[in-house]
Amino acid sequence: MLRIGLTGGIGAGKSTVAKELAALGAVIVDGDKIAREVVEPGTPGLAALVEAFGQGILAEDGSLNRPALAAIAFSDDESRAKLNAITHPLVGARSAELIEAAGPDAVIVQDIPLLVENKVAPMFHLVIIVWVDVEERVRRLVGSRGMVEDDARARIAAQATDEQRRAVADVWLENTGTEEATRAAVRALWRDRIEPFAANVAAHRPAAGAPRVDDPAYAERLTNRLWVTLGAKASAVTAGDAAATVVLADGVGEDDVRHALGDAGFARVGAGEYRGADPGRAVTVRVELSA
Fold first, then answer.
1. Does the pLDDT of residue 144 top 80, yes or no?
2. Residue 33 annotated as binding site
C-alpha cells in the first residue's frame, strides 16, 4: 500500500487534483467529505458540537449550519481547538475504516485540509501540496463559493503558511494554470513517480536511478518518517538530505525492522543497508545495532 497525503490551502484546488488521481486508480479518502458525514443529523459528532457551541449552529431542519459554526469556531484559537478536538478523532476513525477496506495493494490518497497543522505528514510515503497564491485563493473563494472577503482571509490566515507547507512537501504542485494543465501534471506525476513507487513498495525493492534532490527540509521529514515507522524499536535517528542512520534499541535486531522499513519505502539491499523505493528521490538508510 502506498499512502499519499494531499493538502493545500483553502481555495487552492485540491479537488481537481484528487479527481484526476481517482480517475488514474487511486482510492481517495476525502477529509472534508468525511468531516461532513460524521456530523450529519443524528450522529454523536453533531450532538457534541451542539453541546460545545450551542443550538445556534443548527439550521431549521436540524442539520449543521456550517457558516454559523465557522463564525464561532474560527473566531479564536480556543474555539478552533475545541472544534478540532471533537471532529478530528471522528474523522480519523472513519478514515482508518476506509483505508482498511481498500486492500493492501491500493494507492491511498488522503485529502486532508489540515495535514500540516495536525503534523501528520510523517505518516505518508509522499506529501503533495497544491499551491496557489493567497490573492488568487481569495478571489476563488469569493467568486465561486460566495464567501465574504474578510471571512475568506480569516480562513486562510487560520491555516498553515506557505513556508510550513514547503517544509513537508515532497511534491509542490502549482495550480496556477488551466485545469487541463493541472490534470496533465497529475497524470505525469502518476506515471513517473506514484505508480512505480507503489510497485516498488509492494515488492520491497529500491528505485532504480533515482536522482539526488537538493531539499534542505528533507532531513527532518526523513527523520520523522523513520521515527513513525520504527517507534520504540529505534533508539536514535540522524539524517541528512540523502541518507539516514538508525540505531536500534537494545534487544532489537535488523530482522525486527526489515519488513516495516520495506513497507515504509526503504528496501533492503544488503546487511544493514536500505535504499528508497521512491523513483523521485535517492535516499539511503543505514541500520545499526545498539552498542
1. no
2. no
